[in-house]
Design goal:
With 367 residues, the chain is an alpha+beta fold. Helices cover 37% and strands 23% of the residues. It has helices at 25-33, 62-65, 75-81, 92-106, 132-150, 162-171, 185-189, 202-210, 216-220, 224-231, 233-242, 272-292, 325-336; strands at residues 17-22, 42-45, 57-60, 86-88, 112-117, 120-124, 154-159, 177-179, 258-269, 295-306, 311-322, 346-358. The strands form three sheets. The chain has a five-stranded mixed β-sheet. The chain has a four-stranded antiparallel β-sheet with strand order 9-12-10-11, with helices on one face. It has a three-stranded mixed β-sheet with strand order 3-2-4. β10 (295-306) and β11 form a beta hairpin. It binds thymidine-5'-triphosphate and magnesium ion (MG).
Length: 367
Amino acid sequence: MRTKTGNDRNHTSPRFILHIDLDAFFASVEEVNHPELKGRPIIVGADPKQGKGRGVVSTCNYEARKFGVHSAMPISHAWKLCPEAIYLPVNMSLYEEVSKRIINILKPFADRLEQVSIDEAFLDISHKVADLKEAKILAKKIKSSIVDGERLTCSIGIGPNKLVAKIASDHRKPNGLIIISKNDAKKFLAPLNVEKLGGIGSKTKERLNSIGIKTIEDLASYDIKKLKDIFGVWGEEFHRMAHGIDESEIIEEWIPKSFSREYTFDQDTSDLNKIRFIVNKLCEEVILETKENGFSFRTITVKIRYENFETHTHSKTLSFPTSSIETMKNTSMMLLRPFLRSDRKIRLVGIRASNLTEKAHQKTLEN
Ligand code: TTP
Ligand code: MG
């Protein structure tokens, strides 16, 4: 395999972009943590409370998907479909830790890496491999490194750009590996439904369907002038996407939008001292992470969930960026106070710092 030659891309050499997405991520991490549950349907999300629970499914493993359960489904509906499943709460800090370790496993395989979500990343491997055969070997190495390191499976798509790589990784889940050459990109996309293209949501899909466009091939062969008339500048973009064209680069530097922590009490509580203790701890953790990453923030948001899952968030934006622990603690308690009532028990509290400024770019020197 070729060695890394830097970020400058020789425009005559082909681009190889790899997209990786972990399979049933939260549920798979839980499975690794509880090996005794392997083979059972596992649903991660809100408490089902014997079918009376509110809230939604975050995700479920492929055993549970056989019953028709999926992400974002009301947990009460999941209970109807699969009462025998193992229901687990979301343990975000655990999934974030695993996610960080996986990114570290991936980094040496890429010239550039762009993390897109907690379980998803693009890797530019153009300088790491000479052709698709080498790309396949590299993808297999990535898969076995993640199995060896974390006992998790993933799906990988490799293509000439981000658009094709992402659709390819989703195409044969779980544990898939699909490689699409530049020449085959159009053929691969042609029979798929238009909503597979990023940026085409349910409303756009309906509008496209209403003018007879159902598949990507329908879109690719549609008159571009008409598309522009209907969708404006997006019309041109849709046309390009349908032809498998995407020049966007892998953006290495990922700038976080916020830092947050939340805590679910072992038992729902209205004890002000307990709540304050946890809020202070969460503030300290958020501040630590914010500082470690070299940011200050202007907006503080609190989240509170009562025992019946009723959830409120409340924010305050300061006039200047800060990373002061006292400001965060005081503001958080001030924001929470109207929700703290002796007759209402609380299930969860959360703290978020957003509206971030990188310290290096900050004009006001303030701590
Ligand atoms: P996805 O990658 O969309 O889903 P997944 O990894 O569970 O399953 P697969 O990729 O095999 O189809 O999302 C990654 C994680 O993000 C998922 O494990 C849980 C979380 N998530 C939610 O909390 N709510 C949601 O609606 C979705 C889609 C995901
Ligand atoms: Mg996933």
